[in-house]
From TrEMBL:
Pfam families: Methyltransf_25 (PF13649). The keyword Transferase applies. It comes from Strigomonas culicis. The keyword Transcription does not apply. This is Type 11 methyltransferase. The lineage of its organism: Eukaryota, Discoba, Euglenozoa, Kinetoplastea, Metakinetoplastina. Residues 1-22 form the signal peptide. Keywords: Methyltransferase, Signal, Transferase. SUPFAM superfamilies: S-adenosyl-L-methionine-dependent methyltransferases. GO terms for molecular function: methyltransferase activity.
């Protein structure tokens, strides 16, 4: 965004300066002033441009990776790549793909081209300098969980400890994986079986399969879970107003409800989605629902996604 604005602004200024020079309607002092402002604008705009994140993705076998791999690289064996693709970095990043050889080069390139990363560079393992290789496994993930959950989880654990979580509309289970690596036992519900299968693959990848329970269920038809069962409920970008009263009863007394979702105003952005109240909360609506169900608002943060869509992030405790 910064780059496109900068280029457009510089172009307009350049046209104006050219006209000023050819038509002689500005004196030299004014031209010098405008030229200086143009340089400052260029420097400031390009300074604001964020550096794209860069990741090394090793698609060789796990055995080859464990034996030796590039520093700061993540293992995504080619034979598992379709199930594990949901754990790849966000598409605004650039990648180095580490291959054993060029044998599957066209197939690999076609796969990553479809995913639409900022840029992808393909490297054979044999071409890497030995000083860049290591046996130490890269810690953490190359993807990010719900930012609000990530920011709040340490405080949550200090307040209520590590316990049980229900993740509603869990998708491919990345937030579940994040929580389970911290010791939480997580039940996830979604009606998309394919995504839950990817989540199971991720739980095996990160060795937390004993800590997660993905359930295929159409929650609009009811929740097959008892009341007062969970220390925390987490929801990110899922909405069902008719279900909220039922969900609130699933939280233990003094348990927490963490919710991140779209707010009204999304329909006015360039993305334009969600386009009506079936997909977003109105201002103040989520707070009222939680208070009505005997929750106290602990924290409430309003922010915008990079695409300018407004979000509400809320933490509430059941009384």
């Amino acid at each position: 965004m910064c780059f496109s604005i900068s280029v457009l602004t510089l172009f307009i200024f350049s046209v104006f300066l050219h006209a000023a020079l050819t038509k002689n309607f500005l004196n030299p002092l004014s031209l010098h002033f405008l030229h200086t402002k143009l340089l400052y604008l260029a420097l400031f705009s390009f300074t604001l441009m964020p550096e794209p994140r860069h990741f090394r993705i090793d698609i060789r076998s796990r055995e080859d990776y464990d034996e030796l791999h590039p520093q700061d690289s993540y293992s995504f064996p080619w034979e598992n790549i379709r199930n594990e693709a949901c754990a790849l970095p966000e598409r605004s990043c650039s990648l180095d793909i580490i291959m054993k050889n060029d044998e599957k080069g066209p197939e690999v390139k076609a796969f990553f081209d479809r995913l639409g990363f900022l840029s992808v560079n393909y490297v054979t393992f044999a071409s890497l300098p030995s000083e860049q290789l290591t046996r130490e496994t890269t810690e953490g993930f190359c993807w990010s969980p719900n930012p609000y959950l990530k920011d709040k989880i340490q405080q949550v654990e200090q307040e209520i400890g590590v316990g049980t979580v229900l993740d509603v509309g869990c998708g491919s289970c990345r937030d579940m994986i994040f929580l389970s690596t911290r010791g939480w036992f997580v039940t996830g519900i979604d009606n998309r079986e394919k995504l839950l299968q990817q989540g199971l693959a991720l739980s095996q990848k990160y060795c937390v399969s004993e800590h997660i329970l993905p359930l295929v269920s159409n929650i609009k038809q009811g929740l097959p879970l008892r009341n007062d069962a969970f220390d925390m409920i987490h929801i990110c970008r899922f909405i069902d107003r008719l279900l909220m009263d039922v969900l609130c009863k699933k939280v233990k007394k003094n348990g927490l409800f963490l919710y991140s979702h779209f707010l009204e105003g999304c329909e006015k952005t360039e993305v334009g989605h969600p386009k009506n109240r079936n997909g977003f909360f109105e201002n103040g609506e989520l707070e009222r629902i939680l208070i009505k169900n005997n929750f106290t608002i602990v924290d409430c943060v309003y922010n915008e996604l990079p695409d300018r869509r407004p979000m509400i992030n809320i933490s509430a405790r059941r009384e």
